[in-house]
Amino acid sequence: MLKFDPRLRSVMVVAALMATSVSTWAGCRVLTPPEGWAASSMRWDGDCTDDTAHGLGVLKEQDGAAVKRMFFGRVSKGELALGVLDEPGQGFGAGAFRSGKLVETNDRALILQSFEQAAKAASEAADRFERAGNKASAKFYRDKAKQMREQMD
Length: 153
Fold this sequence. Notes:
By secondary structure, this protein is of the alpha+beta class. Helices cover 39% and strands 33% of the residues.
């Protein structure tokens, strides 16, 4: 008969909590990262179907707690579809995406639609943070939504 060490129970509980935390954090995923992003450092904040990003939201590439760059817009079945990349020091990249890559275009209507989707995604993120009581993050995303709308003027 196997003897159960009570200390092992603590280790098993901690391991189970860590697995739950990781799967909760990574529960909603983007399948193909934007070109040049580290997939292991991405975090999706937005609509989700099952465990896959689907709908409006914000994708962040993080370095620890610091956000390096962001995507605001629409994701379809885990793939970037339409929106805006916000890369500090490089400005915005707007349009449709294919396999994580921004498709180059001069189509003004598509670019405007991309900024519109990005503004909606930022506004929805602000609303989520507001409801959660995080006023600083809500303000950050409201300011981002305003920036995106200003690009459409």
